Amino acid sequence: MSEHIVPTKIYIGIFVALLLLTALTTGIAFVDLGAFNTVAALAIAVVKMLLVVLFFMHVKYSSGLTKVFILAGVLFFAILVTLTLADELTRHWSPTPSGWGALLPFSTRFY
Amino acid sequence: MGDHLDGPLGPWYKERVRGQLAAIVADAHGLSDETVSECRELLHDMDGAINEQTKEYRPALSPVAVGDRVDKLLHEAEEKHHESPPISPAIDFGNMWASCYFAMTGFHALHVFGGLVIFGIILLLAARGRLGPRHANMLEITGLYWHFVDIVWIFLFPLLYLIGGRYIGGGH
Question: What is the ipTM of this complex?
Answer without folding.
Answer: 0.80
